[in-house]
Amino acid sequence: MSATRIFSGIQPTGDLHLGNYFGAVRNWVALQEGAADTIYCVVDYHAITGGIDADVLPERALQLAGDLVACGIDPERSILFVQSHVPEHTELAWVFNAFAAFGDLSRMTQFKDKSGRAKHVSSGLFTYPVLQAADILLYLSDGVPVGEDQSQHLELTRSIARRFNQVVGEDYFPDVQTLLTEGKRIMSLADPERKMSKSLGDKHYVGLMEPPKRIAKKIRSAVTDAGGEARDELSPGVANLVGLLRLAGEHAAADQYAEEAKRGDLLYGHLKVAVADAVVAMLEPFQERRAQLSNADLRDLLADGASRASAIAKPVMEDVRRLIGVGARSINR
Ligand code: TRP
């Protein structure tokens, strides 16, 4: 069964990097070619669960939207918008709090990870997956492209939908399919045992909009291994670079470098130059498109996205209020 409406979200943590691109955004772009509607959301209400930063959040949301368009999210073909511009997301999340099982939420591994690291553990961090379920179901979406780390949240989304349908006695929300984004994870350049992430620090990631010289420098400084020895398996750093080369489209070169590395006669400097060249070339059209988008353009495009999203969200929220017996219309009936 294939999905008819696809929804996904991304947190406005700053500029996109190669890990976001290969792990999610590239797939979002490809899904626009299919028959399903595609709805992509910058989830600023999720971002506040990790702390408030009113001075930078609006800028980050706008920046991220610009990066998404530059990568090929087509704001005409897809609905691209910012979560907080459609207030029904948080309203539905509150309703879903009554349907999510506390025990299920307690088992969310992402909560355990994040709360272990946070100084202030907000209850928003705990109910984060409930808001995620609301994002998805507010559009009656039935397909959600995500990485493996989000499977558990989608499992929760399905159990919220099922419980809702059962309680109200109507098959209202669809069963949501997880569209797992395959492809290997991009690891940090400076610590290739960990997933590429902005939060690790500047030298760990390559931002999609970084100047070519900086990109080349970061890749040149990537951690590899001492080299010069035959090995059965590539070390994590070398595997990551070879993987990047392949993802950037240089399959033959990637195969060749991998073989040389296994034989122990690869000069890592050559591999790094090849990776940097391929990545810079791949990013060039994105960077050109990004440079042409003004903040005014982006604001217009997000306003349009929010109004198209609202047109779907409002009637769904009306239905939900009616089904659970809240809202002015329920009383006035
Ligand atoms: N939790 C997701 C992440 O961290 C982001 C997200 C929020 C999301 N709402 C969503 C993803 C809805 C898919 C669908 O990556």
Keywords:
Tyrosyl-Transfer RNA Synthetase, elongated, 5 strands, 2 domains, 333 residues, three-stranded parallel beta sheet, mainly alpha, two-stranded parallel ribbon, binds tryptophan, Rossmann fold, 55% helix, 14 helices
Question: Could you name the ranges where pLDDT drops below 50 across 5 or more consecutive residues?
Answer: none
Mean pLDDT: 96
Biggest sheet: strand arrangement = 1-2-3
Number of DSSP helices? 14
CATH architecture field of the largest domain: 3-Layer(aba) Sandwich
Q: SS-based structural class? A: mainly alpha
Q: Which molecules are bound besides the chains?
A: tryptophan
Residues in helix, %: 40-55%
Reported by name, the CATH topology of the largest domain is Rossmann fold
Tell me, what's the shape? elongated
The Rg value, from CA coordinates, equals 22 Å
H-E string: EHEHHEHHHHEHEHHHHHH
- Give the termini separation: 39 Å
In the residues, how many domains can be counted? 2
- How is the main sheet built? 3 strands, parallel
For this structure, the quaternary state is single chain
Strand content: 5-15%
CATH class (first level) name of the largest domain: Alpha Beta
